[in-house]
TrEMBL record:
SUPFAM superfamilies associated with the record: Voltage-gated potassium channels (SSF81324)
Species assigned in the record: Streptomyces africanus
GO biological process, one term: monoatomic ion transmembrane transport
Domain Potassium channel: 130-203
Localization in the cell: Membrane
Main location class: membrane
Lineage summary: Bacteria, Bacillati, Actinomycetota, Actinomycetes, Kitasatosporales
InterPro entries: K_chnl_dom, VG_K_chnl
Sequence intervals crossing the membrane: 117-137, 179-205
Domain of life: Bacteria
Name of the protein in its database record: Voltage-gated potassium channel
Record carries keyword Transport: yes
Keywords carried by this UniProt record: Coiled coil, Ion channel, Ion transport, Membrane, Transmembrane, Transmembrane helix, Transport
Length: 244
């Protein structure tokens, strides 16, 4: 029990710093893509920041595992965290580091009870749009047949793909770009389902609340009516007594 409480304390104390590192990762990932003419020193610094952030999340997983009361259970229930930590080690690609960091941030966000569903959905949408745009731009910009050449094109393509509109004016031509498109489409459908379910649940809760209030008012009116009838009966009885 002591180890479990230590794990929870660690997660609470490290959540904000890890999110701050995730923002640093976003900047480091975006700079070489948005500024392809950046100097080699800038690119090296950005790469180092990416690896440092990934290393921080990997260290966080290791410490949480060490503090867990039942480590095998922790591994089984946090298999996505482990996969995200191991993913960049098999192939040191920037795209894999981006995917693993997104997964780790998402897993840590779900552990936070104070983050509401709406905030999480909005953050997920913004994060997917940003990283999807940067990722597709990085793989499609140098493609001979590619038509996504600027950040504006990439953002427009990501938005239409996530909303499953798909105008077709911009589309990936590489295999990796099409894999990104599939991921964005599935993510967009999932997030749309979450938003729709959240709105439906709000309306249902509102209707139930109104229904309860209506039943309460109806019951109050019924009780008042019965009291009035009883008073009328008493008044009639008093009148009959006075006449006699």
């Amino acid at each position: 029990m002591h180890q479990k409480s230590a794990q929870l304390r660690w997660e609470q104390h490290t959540q904000r710093p890890l999110f701050g590192l995730a923002l640093a990762f976003a900047v480091a990932y975006a700079v070489p893509i948005v500024r392809p003419d950046a100097s080699r020193d800038v690119v090296d610094v950005c790469t180092a920041v990416e690896w440092v952030v990934w290393g921080a999340f990997a260290l966080d997983y290791g410490i949480r595992l060490a503090l867990a009361e039942q480590r095998l259970v922790f591994v089984r229930t946090h298999w996505l965290d482990l996969g995200a930590v191991l993913l960049p080690m098999f192939q040191p690609m920037r795209l894999l580091r981006m995917v693993s960091t997104l997964l780790l941030v998402g897993q840590r966000a779900r552990m936070a009870s104070q983050i509401r569903l709406t905030t999480y959905v909005v953050g997920a949408v913004v994060g997917l749009l940003m990283f999807g745009s940067l990722a597709v731009l990085s793989v499609e910009r140098d493609s001979p047949d590619g038509n996504i050449r600027t950040l504006g094109d990439a953002v427009w393509w990501s938005f239409t793909t996530m909303t499953t509109v798909g105008y077709g004016d911009h589309a990936p031509t590489t295999g990796l770009g099409r894999m990104l498109a599939v991921g964005l489409m599935l993510s967009g459908i999932a997030l749309l389902g979450v938003v729709t379910a959240n709105i439906a649940a709000w309306f249902i809760a509102r209707f139930e609340k109104d229904d309860v209030e209506e039943r309460r008012q109806t019951e109050a009116i019924r009780e008042l009516t019965e009291e009035v009838r009883a008073l009328r009966g008493e008044v009639a009885a008093l009148k009959g007594t006075s006449v006699e």
